[in-house]
Design goal:
There is one protein chain. With 278 residues, the chain is mainly alpha-helical. It contains 14 helices and 2 strands, in the order ααααααααααααββαα. The protein has a two-stranded antiparallel ribbon with strand order 1-2. β1 and β2 form a beta hairpin.
């Protein structure tokens, strides 16, 4: 199960290998300690929500997921991973009219308070805090996350965010990092920057770099369920498994289309035109 979580936490939910292993772990979830069994069940249910199920079945699975996670945090209130899993599920599979940003941040804050060296809760907390205008809190999350010095695409993306926000104009170091970054790292940065009012147009700079970036070979999430009831989903192509890494061209266009729809800076329309021709 650590392999599943490693795939998922490397950057985004929806990794094909994590999906396969998550479902398999759920099917084999027998004879384990109660905590492990609950967390594996939650991971498996979360992965199952990426499948194109009928709406009533999908909603039933979503309800089971939150019932499982609610039981987990009630039974293990001192477990940072349990709170992270709850926050992550709220983020990816929000319940209309019930799920709030405050609820997501509360779960991530509980996880961080219980273990400040546990990296995954910071990722969405940074994005959400910026999104709702809690700039000081977002910067605290960002600084704490970078201080962990983790080596993964999210950490590289967050480092780029910090450099771009440090000054009104990108420094030579930030420019070099933009030019050298993979599409996956740029997407991690852009996902955060898209919600920040920014006269320096940092999100536009990242978008331009993403158009020209080298492909990373990593899976990428592209769009929300058509009924508005779920999280962003992995790009798919026809094949045996139905879950494959998209082509570099498709990766860049769909990634940009997803997060640029929420960019809050003057260059948004110019970037849309740029994307349409990439």
């Amino acid at each position: 199960m650590n392999g599943v979580r490693g795939c998922g936490r490397k950057g985004f939910r929806g990794d094909p290998l994590a999906h396969e292993w998550g479902l398999r772990a759920g099917a084999l979830n027998r004879g384990l300690a109660p905590r492990d069994s609950l967390l594996i069940a939650a991971d498996s249910l979360s992965e199952a929500l990426f499948d194109q199920l009928g709406d009533s079945v999908w909603r039933e699975q979503q309800g089971r997921l939150f019932a499982t996670l609610d039981a987990t945090v009630q039974r293990y209130p001192g477990d940072p991973e349990a709170w992270y899993e709850l926050g992550d599920a709220l983020y990816h599979w929000p319940i209309p009219s019930r799920t709030t940003v405050d609820g997501m941040l509360n779960a991530f804050d509980r996880a961080i308070a219980l273990d400040s060296t546990f990296g995954p809760p910071y990722v969405h907390a940074i994005e959400l805090a910026f999104q709702v205008g809690r700039i000081d809190a977002a910067r605290r999350y960002l600084d704490a996350y970078l201080a962990l010095n983790q080596t993964d695409p999210n950490s590289e993306g967050m480092g780029l965010v910090a450099k771009l926000l440090a000054t009104s104009q990108p420094s030579p170091e930030a420019t070099r990092q933009l030019q050298a970054a993979s599409s996956y790292v740029l997407n991690a940065a852009g996902w955060v920057l898209r919600g920040i009012p920014d006269s320096a147009e940092s999100a536009v700079q990242v978008a331009r770099a993403l158009v020209q970036s080298r492909p990373s070979g990593e899976p990428v999430l592209t769009s929300r369920r058509s009924d508005g009831g779920g999280s962003v989903e992995p790009s798919r192509t026809e094949g045996t498994s139905g879950r494959h890494t998209p082509s570099p061209r498709t990766y860049r266009r769909t990634t940009l289309s997803t997060w640029l729809s929420q960019v809050r800076c003057p260059g948004n329309e110019r970037t849309r035109r740029l994307v349409s021709g990439c």
